[in-house]
Design a protein that fits this description.
Rossmann fold, Immunoglobulin-like, four-stranded antiparallel beta sheet, alpha/beta, single chain, 287 residues
């Protein structure tokens, strides 16, 4: 069905070593559109230099062209770093640093995330030093996030987008009146050292967030593994129905992965709101 919507341009700014992480962020934006754009009357438009910048011969440098075509036009900017800061420009320590700085100065919504994922032992030490220096400078100007897996990055980007749409006064009043319950499921975990100092995943869980404006009452669920010969995770929940409050209310289902657990599960949710029965089905990545 055709619907009127506000288009929000989201620039994914990052150095050349983070192409897969840019893919990860873009997947989150498309996922949000699939779940929320119709109800919120908002569409998130991912923007990336390698796919959206147009080759243009000018009397300026390449980064200035990217600035004119993508940076100045963005509404939200997501910055992601892994093992290097990037190539310097005539005006900044790197192209990504320039994009973030100009966006912040223009009053745009800017979020920056640094990877804690492993780096090769023979990685360029000078590149790491430059990245650490940029991180120290950034710490004096605001709060940045860190992630140890693509899944953790996705969770942080989802929260940032929801926060930004609230600040921008978008998505809270969809066309056609108030919105009912809207349940979103994500997999999360903590990372802690064990008694031998090895980093392990702990407190694995599925977080159910009600992004709607009505309570979801009497919620029940079924978890099915995706793929043949796979198993679902162990579930630590008594199975009793529960209620999730509106406007960000959360319910946590403790789970445990083990050998043979599927990488993805189908989560079937059922609940009632205002006496009407509702249901939804979502695919959740357990990684």
């Amino acid at each position: 069905m055709v619907f009127a919507a506000t288009v929000v341009k989201v620039l994914i700014a990052s150095p050349g070593d983070t192409a897969e992480l840019r893919d990860t962020v873009e997947e989150v934006l498309h996922e949000w559109n699939g779940m929320r754009s119709g109800g919120a009357a908002v569409v998130l438009l991912p923007r990336r230099w390698e796919t959206d910048a147009v080759a243009e011969y000018t009397d300026t440098d390449g980064q200035s062209v990217i600035n004119a075509q993508l940076v100045y036009d963005a509404d939200i900017v997501i910055g992601v770093f892994h093992s290097r800061l990037g190539t310097a420009t005539p005006r900044a320590a790197s192209g990504t640093a320039e994009e973030l700085g100009r966006s912040q100065e223009a009053g745009k919504r800017v979020h920056v995330y640094f990877s804690d994922m492993p780096i090769a032992h023979d990685h360029d030490r000078a590149a790491l030093a430059a990245l650490d220096e940029f991180k120290r400078a950034l710490r004096e100007r605001g709060l940045f996030g860190s992630f140890d897996s693509p899944t953790a990055l996705q969770a942080q980007v989802r929260r940032a987008i929801e926060h930004d749409l609230t600040i921008l006064d978008l998505g809270a009043r969809p066309a056609g009146g108030s919105r009912g319950a809207a349940l979103r499921a994500t997999f999360a975990y903590d990372r802690e050292p064990d008694n031998r100092g090895r980093i392990r995943s702990t407190r694995e869980r599925i977080e159910l967030v009600n992004e709607g404006r009505e309570a979801a009452e009497g919620v029940t669920y079924e978890i099915l593994p995706v793929g043949k010969n796979n198993h679902g995770p162990l579930i630590h929940h008594d199975g009793e129905p529960f209620t999730i409050a509106p406007n960000g209310g959360t319910f946590v289902i403790a789970v445990l992965r083990y050998a043979g657990t599927a990488d993805n599960i189908q989560l079937h949710l059922r609940w009632s709101e205002g006496g009407a029965q509702r249901s939804s089905q979502q695919t959740v990545a357990l990684r």
